[in-house]
């Protein structure tokens, strides 16, 4: 990692010393991830390494290590373990998510459920959760309680998404709560863990936890916007994936709120399988108030994230976190 942007994550490290410290920590996390999934039973090790070795941005460990830099000293061993705990938890949820979504691809390779089967994918996720629990036990009862509470939020968010809003519930409020639980909660814990194992104040620990929660939700809103607004050649993704899966993201929910009886509303009533209708729905969404309102909400989230950092000492670590708040907006405009 250089002093420029860390690929895909949005962090800018103006200080090469800080960049080197963070990269060194990430390398240790990577080694630990490979170590903990070792097993004399080769199949479980093979399926566990499937996603570990598929790469990924390692955003959560990055938050953990960077958050530990706000104190004069940090407990390196505990921070590395905590970073591995949040990444193992994240990877475990991906195995389970792919089963629920009947996914066939993950990070450019066949998903575990497609390569093996649903049962193997579920068991592999459970195996990774077990190792996350074993690691966090070394960090004390406080850390164990936090990861248990976070896991509860992850499950609640998934159930909330699966069941959808209840009768009379505001769909937008339901959605924002869901992404806070599904995405924001684990990034919040990642940042909190890093701060916990350095010598910062309780107020600063809370600030970093809050920042992680808000910026995590902001990343999801940004992804929602990109799925509609960005051509494939810019985003590297196929636009309209959410439309094809029948997932109602924030721009769609705002558009439905503003134009409940429109052609767009009729298209969004079910998953869209016809390519021409996907193109039509994308054109209507790009011209709708829903996309503009989602971008405004994203701007608000990014501003909230920046505001939580005001209690932290100025310096290169804070600059790096502020750069993410800028990136999450600019990537979707």
Automatic annotation (TrEMBL):
Its EC number is 2.5.1.-. It comes from the Bacteria. Transmembrane segments: none annotated. Gene3D superfamilies: Farnesyl Diphosphate Synthase. The keyword Metal-binding applies. Keywords: Magnesium, Metal-binding, Transferase. InterPro entries: Isoprenoid_synthase_dom_sf (IPR008949), Polyprenyl_synt (IPR000092), Polyprenyl_synt_CS (IPR033749). GO terms for molecular function: transferase activity. Belongs to the FPP/GGPP synthase family. This is Polyprenyl synthetase family protein. The lineage of its organism: Bacteria, Bacillati, Actinomycetota, Actinomycetes, Pseudonocardiales.
